[in-house]
Amino acid sequence: MTRSARPLIAIPARFSAGASALRHAAEVNARALVEAVWRAGGEPVTIHPHAPAGRCDPRGTAARLARFDGVLLPGGGDLAPHRYGAGQTHEAVYDVDDEQDAFDLEAARQALALKLPLLAICRGLQVVNTALGGTLHQDMGGPGREHRHVRHPVCLSPGSTVAALVGADKTEASCYHHQHVDRLGTGLVVTARAADGTIEAVEAPDAGGWFLAVQWHPEDTAGEDAGQQGLFDALVRAAYGAG
């Protein structure tokens, strides 16, 4: 890649039963997400989450990702609970796809191993946490614990990457999730929490490459909030350095 070119940001697609104007099931990414990467100066590239029979070849995934300058793991449905060692599945778990899980988990492992710049959003954070040996609460549940279709304040740790990018010690986060981190994955540190204690961002200081994961959806408000757009800007800046 020449320095004048947009760095290529790989975004695993999400399987969808259908989409407007298509006659078949689709592989998609949210327009708000790809536009945030584009505004940042990146070239968003949707990649096929190929993992037949729920198995993913590590070497093949590494080779595919090595073509890119950065990776963005987006939101989506729930991870299968067996992926983090749970023996039972809560009734609230939805949109589980074994192929999607296998690919995303391997993509997270390989992006970290390759030290590719990596931004993980919502499900993406949960994928990274699981890939590093952590676990999830399958459902937050109960009145006052709702994190779907809400904007709420999140406190950011002083000196953290996310606080530096947002430019404050608090941000208004747009959330849509009913699961969150239980046991933290190896090497991760918590850098943001909601008022109810929910982990809202994690970083990996010793990972050797640029990495940030947030539980909220910065793409929801990035078009109007420079702090949220700053997360995508930082990913693309890091990708320029990797290219």
Automatic annotation (TrEMBL):
Where do the TM regions start and end? Answer: none
Q: Name one GO cellular component term.
A: cytosol
Give one Pfam hit by family name.
Peptidase_C26
Q: Name one GO molecular function term.
A: gamma-glutamyl-gamma-aminobutyrate hydrolase activity
Keywords, ordered alphabetically: Hydrolase
* Top-level taxonomic group: Bacteria
Q: State the organism of origin.
A: Streptomyces typhae
Q: Which PROSITE patterns match?
A: GATASE_TYPE_1
Task: Please name the GO terms of the biological process aspect recorded for this protein, alphabetically.
Answer: polyamine catabolic process
Matching entries from Gene3D superfamilies are given as: 3.40.50.880
Q: What is this protein called?
A: Gamma-glutamyl-gamma-aminobutyrate hydrolase family protein
